[in-house]
Amino acid sequence: MNEESAIHDNFLQTRAKQTRDNRSVTPPIQSDSCQLTPLLLIDDDRSLASLIAEYCTAAGFSIASALNGEDGLYQARQLHYFLIILDVMMPGIDGFEVLKRLRQSSDTPILMLTTRGAAMDRVLGLESGADDYLAKPFEPEELVARIKSILRRALPKEAPSQMTVGDLMLDEPGRFVVLAGQRLELTGAEFSLLRLLLSNPGDPLSREELIRRIFGREPTSFDRSIDNLINNLRRKLGMHPDSSERIKSVRNVGYCYVLASSGSVAS
Predict the structure, then answer these.
(1) CA–CA distance from 120 to each of 31, 99, 198 (Å)?
(2) Which domain-ending residue is among 91, 123, 154?
(3) pTM of the predicted model, to two decimals?
């Protein structure tokens, strides 16, 4: 029996057991997809990725998929994910190399999947920065349990779930922003940028720091990604009610979010 068939059989057996026990396969979750916790799966097996996405969605996670290491690195650097599920054996750059590159700039929790049973592979993954290691084939319930366990360890309990600055409210678990009672549509990168600015109101953050923390890469002299994000965010946020700017440019430094009543930052 191949790896995909074994995992698929595990999924079917789990469903059958839940049916016999008169338990719902899908635990009660809110129907609004914004309430699902975003995860990234990097695995070249389309069928397996579909099965994992199906079961994880039922457990309260939304799954974005990348079918190779290069695409996985790109997605991980463009958007915010609470956890990355990373396969070891992939064409092109393998999971260990993806892990190495991610750990150069990101502390996002990583759960590695592999068919390899050798203890040294597990040791290599953990010593390279993986948070946990799960061998294929696996029980779907164990995968979900591992994810939840990692997130419990990784997410600080004292971190506020919401951030309110003036008339702006940012909800971290739900990944949404409300301005003066109206919900805004932001991309993942825009959300991450706004969260950083709101965490340091009045204190400018450099373009270089923002690029590293949002995209996980080193800035270049011609990199205008942050400036483009700032322009988009300014357009969506608009001005303060007193017509002052919400996001100010600080000459030779970067950008900061300023309250309407404290527009003293020189631009």
Answers:
(1) 42, 16, 43
(2) 154
(3) 0.52
Q: CATH no. for residue 209?
A: 1.10.10.10
Same domain, 80 and 210: no
pLDDT level of residue 34 (50, 70, 90 thresholds): very low
- CA dihedral over 10, 66, 192, 32, signed as positive or negative: negative
Can you tell me the mean pLDDT for 143-158? 77
Q: Both 249 and 120 in a single domain?
A: no
Instruction: Identify any residues that bridge with 226 across adjacent strands, giving them in sequence order.
Output: none
197 and 229 assigned to the same domain: yes
Same domain, 19 and 134: yes
pLDDT at residue 63 is higher than 80: yes
Task: Give pLDDT, residue 266.
Answer: 38
Look at residues 111, 128, 154 and tell me which one is the last residue of a structural domain: 154
Cβ neighbors of 41 (< 8 A, separation 6 or more) are 49, 52, 53, 63, 64, 65, 66, 84, 85
User: If you search the block for the tokens 């000459």, which residue do you land on?
Assistant: 251
Q: What is the mean pLDDT of residues 164-188?
A: 89
- Edge-to-edge strand ranges of the sheet holding 205-206: 205-206, 254-257, 247-250
pLDDT digits (tens, 9 = 90+) for 198-208: 987 888 888 88
Burial of 252 from C-beta contacts in 10 A (0-12 / 13-18 / 19+): exposed
Phi, psi of 58 (to 5 degrees): -65, -25
Task: For Cα atoms 132, 136, 61, give the angle at the middle one, nearest 5 degrees.
Answer: 60
Is position 267 within any domain?
no
